[in-house]
Amino acid sequence: MAGNDIEAKGINPGLIVLIVIGGLVLTFLIGNYALYIYAQKNLPPKKKKPVSKKKMKRERMKQGVAPPGE
């Protein structure tokens, strides 16, 4: 009889699993958000790729500036 009483009074195991998984997912999302905010504040901005000399020459030609040496 005591075994049946414990089973009847206990919380539904499915509910426990849902709560645990939900808590883990929530923790993961909050952790990711916190890391994102931290990174935005503390990491330096990404460096731009260096522009090639060919592209610089082409841009100058578009603007009508004569390249040096010509």
UniProtKB/TrEMBL annotation:
GO cellular component: nucleus
Molecular function as annotated in GO: DNA binding
Record key words, sorted: DNA-binding, Membrane, Nucleus, Repressor, Transcription, Transcription regulation, Transmembrane, Transmembrane helix
InterPro entries according to UniProt: S1FA_DNA-bd (IPR006779)
Region (Disordered): 45-70
Location in or out of the cell: Nucleus
Transmembrane segments: 15-39
Keyword presence, Nuclease: no
Pfam family name, one: S1FA
GO biological process: regulation of DNA-templated transcription
Biased amino acid composition, Basic residues: 45-60
Family named by the database record: Belongs to the S1FA transcription factor family.
Job of this protein: DNA-binding protein that specifically recognizes a negative element (S1F) within the RPS1 promoter.
Listed name of the protein: DNA-binding protein S1FA
Taxonomic source organism: Saponaria officinalis (Common soapwort)
